Amino acid sequence: MADALMVQPDHAFIREVIRDSGGELKKCFQCATCSSVCAHSTEVRPFPRKQMLEAQWGMGNRLLGDPAIWLCHDCGDCTARCPRGARPSAVMDAIRLAVIKRIAFPRFMGSVASNLGGAVLLFIFSALLLLSIAVLPLGGSFARPLIYGEMFPKARLEPMFYVVGVYVAMALLVGMMRLVRALRATGVQGAILPALLPALIEITLHRRFASCGSGQIRRWGHLLVFSAFLGLAVMGTAVGVGSMLGLIDTPLPMLHPLKVFANLCALVLAVGAAILVWVRWADQEKRAGSSFGDWYFLVLLGGVGFTGILTEAVRMGQNLDWMFTIYFIHLCLVLTLFLSTPYSKFAHFLYRTIAMAAAWQESQSPARGQAVAGGPDVALPEGPGLPHVI
Questions:
Q1: Cα torsion for 38, 39, 40, 43, to the nearest 10°?
Q2: Domains 11-105 and 108-349 share a fold
Q3: Per CATH, is 108-349 categorized as 3.40.50?
Q4: What is the mean pLDDT of residues 120-148?
Q5: How far is CA 97 from the centre of its chain?
């Protein structure tokens, strides 16, 4: 018989998961249909049945270091087959959001991307920060051609984004360190660094979506968004470094290869975000189980891509009435996107990579994986990950 486990429910965690998952958590009666139909659930790292039970019991600390919550790709197969309408995929997503809040740095920023008030305040902060470096009022002569540097000179704009970039990198680094500490605390022993490359390849190619019956359209939306964002990140880094070294003069001409590449990435980003919005809205189960953070992420992505394209269009047309206004809105959205990266679904990429790397390394040693499946202080499961509880 398994050792007993005394549970002290975290009621705040339970309420948070119920709110962000659509309120159906308590409908789960542990039939195990979800784990049975999931193509990626394993005996060593089972999900989502085990996590559904732990969320019902308010075992937030245990879920904090469970790599299985990141192995789930929210394809929706479990929700489609659930006989009780408990929306396991939405619950797993809510658990991930709860974990992001708890490992966020600084912690008070953890909820910024999960509620309307926080998102609005972050946008207002971004607008005020940009206005503090803007040249206002604009020069009265408006010599042609009109350039965006009249409002935001490169000497002010680039250093501001460098500072923001350092802050975001630091926040993500602290979050990753906290996640690794939580994984180790629950008994995850897989070495992470040697397995990063296989995990990154799998994530980049979105291979897991190919095994999901309900996630094929979302796979292409995710792939487009991921590829576009990665392309923009690489292009932005190249332009920033080139500008600092004096190798590239900004703003780039419209037909410059990097500018053309950036515009194509913006278009792909807008298309990918539109696909994901449409899929989430068209699927009644997805729509009902979507949290504010889901929509915030998608709308912000689409807004950045759309206003980026529009910014180039009005620049080409030299439309004085709209040119600087649209550019300002675009910069506000971009800055909001950067500042919310450690606290939104963008953090999923890094945290999922770490969890997948640890789980992949564990899978190479089945005996060790079986030994740590429940963690050092957790009873061996009675069935698929279900501990005996007092």
A1: 80
A2: no
A3: no
A4: 85
A5: 9
